[in-house]
Each structure stands twice: as structure tokens, then as C-alpha cells.
Amino acid sequence: MSSLRRMLAILDLFSEAAPVWAAEDLIARLGYSRPTGYRYVRELVAAGLLVRFTGGVYHLGPRIIQLDHQIRATDPVLNAGAPIMKALAEQTGCHVLLASLYGEQVLNIHHEPGLEKLDLVFVRGVPMPLVRGATSKAILAHLPRARLRRIYDRHAKAIARAKLGRNWDDFRRALGAIRKQGYAYTGGELDPPNVGIAAPVFAADGEVLGSVSFVTLDRRWALLDQAQLIDILRAGARRITQAVAAVSSPRPQRKAA
């Protein structure tokens, strides 16, 4: 692990359950030497990513708020997807969520509310289960085989618990079925009694970036034209993919006068 990754690993320890840490506890948890650990903490404080609080403990710093503002204003996937998501929420009455994948983390980056009041645990910025829920499954189904194999090797027990396969071949077949139908469906898997359907969103080069999801109550789902809703979702995902490609394509340089 590089020095930068070792330093940033300190930030991963902060959570709603553990919002403040003493420097010595951070260092002990990560197994760093005292000189190295204290140097990392000082550098994070200098960058505004940590703040020293009363009693000598630390919490996350205001630089993170600044970066979040910049992401909301400039993220090309978010900017491309938000207007389309708003239209989809108005058209269907479903909650519409856009999720992004980085490493082995799936995060919702935007949410357009629907007609119903839903209890959603995995709001913007809360990591989702990698192998549960339509949002994650729609992404997994479109990852390259080699990357999927690495995920399987690291998460085989969770995959079996999620009923995605008790061995590699079963896992690959389950995701192949999702890929073939073009969307993932789960009922009550994350936030019962909510139902979710999700379709993949791609970069211009065909790499999967994330997914767009519809979430609604199971009783409403039972009354809807489900085939039509799936068609609307898949069309919306294609529109977001096209919009992402448009904003990420290099603009031609103007010739000097």
C-alpha cells in the first residue's frame, strides 16, 4: 500500500457510529508506527480533511464539504443524469436513484424523489452492499470477467448468502441472466417493503459507470404496468449514457486567430 493510501485509510475509520477519534486510537487501529501515524494526522489536518476538536480528538474537516459542493456542481455523470432523472420521476412517480461504482464500492450519487414517502437507508454517500439490491446487481452484471472473478474470490460467502451462486460458475450464470435481460429486479432485499429495478449506465468507451434505479413500494409495483416501467427505465439509462458521452467527449479546439 502506498503512503498516500495509508494516509487516506485514516479517513475510512470515521463513520456515524464513530465520528470522532483520538490520534493514538487511529494509529493503533491501523497498526502504524507513532511517528508515521502522527505525521499522517498532521497532514490531513493541514489539508482541511481532519479537524482537531476539544479534548484532543479529531473529526472530519470542512474541506470535505467543499469537495462535495464541487462534485455536485461539476460531476459530469451527475450533471448529465439529473435532468433525465427528474423527468423519469415525474413520468413514473417512482423514486429515481443514480449510483456510481468505484473500486468495490457502490454509492448513490443523486436521488429524485417520487410520489411515495419511502424509508431509504442507502441515500447519497452511504455505501451499498456490493452483491445485494438491484442497483448493485445491474452494475456487477456488466463488469469484465477478470474483475468479476476477483470480486467472487473476495466475497464468495456474501455472494452465496445473496443467492447469487454457491460457486463461480453459478455466480457468472446469475449475472449473465441479468445482463441478457438488460435490468435487475429485487423485492425487499435492501429496504423492505420497497421494490427496486435498475439498468446500467455506461461511459463512451462501453465501460459500466453505474446504474439508474426505480424504487417504489411493493404494493404499488403490483398495480403498475411492469413491462412498461422496465422499458421506461432502460430507455432512461440509455439517455443518461448518451448524455454522459456528450459531456465527456473532447471539444474541438478553436483555431487561433
* Domains (count): 2
Number of strands: 8
Major sheet: size, sense and barrel closure? Answer: 5 strands, antiparallel
Uncertain segments are none
Oligomeric state:
single chain
Architecture of the largest domain, CATH level 2?
A: 2-Layer Sandwich
CATH third-level topology of the largest domain: Beta-Lactamase
What is the terminal separation in angstroms?
A: 49 Å
Shape: globular
Radius of gyration: 21 Å
Mean pLDDT: 94
Which class do the helix and strand fractions yield? alpha+beta
Provide an overview of this structure.
The protein is α+β, with helices and mostly antiparallel strands. The protein has two domains: 63 residues, Winged helix-like DNA-binding domain superfamily/Winged helix DNA-binding domain (Arc Repressor Mutant, subunit A); 174 residues, Beta-Lactamase (2-Layer Sandwich). Strand 2 and strand 3 form a beta hairpin. The longest helix is centred in the C-terminal third of the chain and has 23 residues. The chain starts with a helix and ends in a 9-residue tail after the last helix.
Keywords summarizing the entry:
single chain, about 260 residues, alpha+beta, Arc Repressor Mutant, subunit A, Beta-Lactamase, 2 domains, five-stranded antiparallel sheet, three-stranded antiparallel sheet, 10 helices, about 20% strand, globular
